[in-house]
Structures
1.
Amino acid sequence: MFLNPRQTLSTCKNSDCEDCPVKKELNCHFNLKQLVRFITIVMPAAIVGGYGIVIYNPLYIIIWILMFIIYFGFVEIRVMCSHCPHYAEPNMKSLKCWANYGSPKLWKYRPGPMSMTEKIIFKAGAIIIFAYPIPFLILKLELLSYILLGIYGVLISTAFFLLKKYYCSYCINFACPLNNVDNKIREKFFSKNQVVKDAWRQ
């Protein structure tokens, strides 16, 4: 279901993960607990936003679902996930991480930072998707929709804060614009992952 926690990443020069200081500071491996916690963080906002769309017009929820599938299942994988060392694992046909679990690996591994174009696509896509329910909540012109709008805003803000604190601070995909791993910790990772280091030093 997930990469063996005792098995090093394919980019890592270590023979095993025992006594590795990096594993205490970064999530080189993923597990079911992380996946469940991620879903718990993001689902409330998705449910409230989806409900707001449905009470306006149920047909529009289909568009939102398609946007989710296309963006998170294909577009984000290309522009952001393909830069992640986890993506380099040769025996995995799909991603086994907390954010995009099950998404197919259609693109080749591309170590190093994202290009400016990729960053724009990544940010624009995320903004469009998470802002999509807002017009429907406003246009409904009902007290309930305005209450849902406030709740949606709080849930989105809370999810963003929790992800930055508990996930983005430990993520090995340094290319992601949301990644905020300390530079000293990044250097520790680079020292054990030469391919990744070389790509970031070009």
2.
Amino acid sequence: MHSSDPVIRLRDVRVDVEGHRALDGVDLDVAAGALTAVVGANGSGKSTLVSVLAGLRTPTAGSVDMREGTAIALVPQHTADSARLPLTVTDLVSMGRWRERGAFRPLRRSDRATVAEAIDAVGLTRFASRPLGALSGGQRQRAFLAQALAQHADLLLLDEPTSGLDDASRRAAASALRVATDRGAAVVVVTHDLGELGDVDAVVTLAAGRIVDAPTAHDTRARRGWNVSSVEG
């Protein structure tokens, strides 16, 4: 069930980057328990919007109001460099408990259960003890998603988490995102293909830094599989 009280609210947000208007007059409410997809062409402002939601970029103008006590987890795009991290899947996902438990402190039984549940949610249970370097790129991306799930954040932000993944990894990632929304988290995903996410609750379409379309959940179900890479902006 979605909360009527948004986790984060943007009003007339403008972001200028090196003389370029990256976001222009953006109004957005992000609801708890909902999966929101952000779509648009390259350069339309998608990543800038995520950085504002994550608190990593201060708008040039406008307001950003976040519900008090909101915890944020961000899953950026990952490269082959992540394969060199000297960590197993369990090690990586366990780091997701540091916000509540504290860095390097022993995990409690409840923490270990949370880690195991997150790994299972992304379909990596049988790889839990493997080093990241022994995984495929798609499996590593799912491991980072599991780390975010283990944080039990109120706002989960993902920048093209299914880009370049095989079909099995995409399905596992989409299912895992629903685990987060079912728990009540607000999930925002940047994507080039709505079909990779399954059913979404809201779509924010950006062009030239402005929101130009925001279909309802009913509309998005009718548009599943729509590849938005051709959207102008």
3.
Amino acid sequence: MALTNEQIERYSRHIILKEVGAKGQKKLLNAKVLIIGAGGLGAPAAMYLAAAGVGTIGIADADEVDLSNLQRQIIHQTKDVGKPKVESAKETMEAMNPDVKVITYHEFITSENILDIIRDYDFIIDGTDNFPAKFLINDACVMAKKPFSHAGIIRFQGQLMTYVPGQGPCYRCVFKEPPPKDAVPTCKQAGVIGAMGGVIGSLQAMEAVKYIIGKGDLLTGYLLTYDALKMQFRKVKLPGDTHSCPVCGDNPTITRLIDYEQAECDGVGL
């Protein structure tokens, strides 16, 4: 397909990059990315992917906009309080870029529906705030051979990693199973600085863009951590041996998806 004159102008700062060009922009326009969670991480990720011209963006979230969300979930506005987050997000994204088709899933992601939902997407962004969802997304993506970006934030700290099938450890390779209930404070209990979502969520969007255009080094095999108070990033190499992993290893023992129970709004699993 040929880019229209309007698209050439809209994406001109992408097109002049040798790593992107018209070819890379067409890849973005043809790509499909699913964002699970329209909160602190999903909000900035969704906005940057829409602005970048990712052609189809799915967004899944069962919640409605709450006033306490607005300190960090920048895709929503005060007028959206009480509205389903997926509807609020869709309105913002489509107003930003009419090139983008937004598909909404106003439902909880569970072991029953996740494989059907992720099936048609090229890349998944985990913007959830609880451990059960993170393990479910990881296991489903491994089973379906879907690349995804994991991230988590709490207080002034954040972390992220990227899984690509066959190219490094999955989330369960690093964090074996969800922690016991109440072992880790939720962000409702511990708090989270609003801009932290912008920092980490934008990095998730960057991972998706790099995967789609096939340029740069992804965070496969690494965990990137960020301490905002110290203004310090650390890139930690993860164990390279994935053979014994119960889901992505040579002899997986987890062969069906599990819905764990846990409090909402968990932190990063550090």
4.
Amino acid sequence: MKQLSDTFWNIRGVHRVAGVLDIGTQMSLVRRDDGRFVVIDGCPLDDAQRDALLALTGNGERVAAVVHVHPFHTLHVEAMQRLFPGATLHGTARHRRLAPSLPWSATPVEAWGEDHPLAELFDLSVPGGVAFVCADERVHVASVLVRHRRDGIVHVDDTLNVLAAPGLLRGLLPQSSLRMHPLLARALKPEAGAADAYAAWARTLASRWADTRIVCAAHSALRRFPEGGFADEVEAALERVSRALDRHRVRYG
């Protein structure tokens, strides 16, 4: 469990592809002004991580809410509910569909407006122009991006990526700058204007969240930014997918 500020912690978990390659996953923990906590997502916890998390949160009793923000990150939803049974539970429509017996709050996270239940802590963003849940369930492009307003820290699953070498190579090879999801072209809605809507979303994100200083990216790594670095890297990431966006425009208008 890595403390990134006096109110924000990030926990990295193991997630293996084909039972071999660990691409990692994550959850985050934020302390509110009243001393209670909000958990973002869930991940597998080893004994040391679980003990540290429970010690920090008064055996879990000071966790006020758990919010799951990626529709395809579902493996640890029930485990988080068992760990924090007294917390208000928020999730996407897909979480609610796959685990209907859990005590979900009223509105799916992707439908929240600016006055959402955690607005005192977080800015949220959902990418435009793409399907939030693709028919091809291997395509995990969209999610709800969460920005802790006080500390300028973004928690994001899949929508933005930071490529890092696996295992022992991680300390030897440099990580990448921010990247858009590699399957973006398959997630764009098959309609005119979808490519422009995605580009407009990315540029708005770069502008509105320009003072972001850390991104916690699932399946990869943390990335720290100098002043203005987040905006520059989002703009550069958008440029890298420009050909995919142009192909979509040619096909759909």
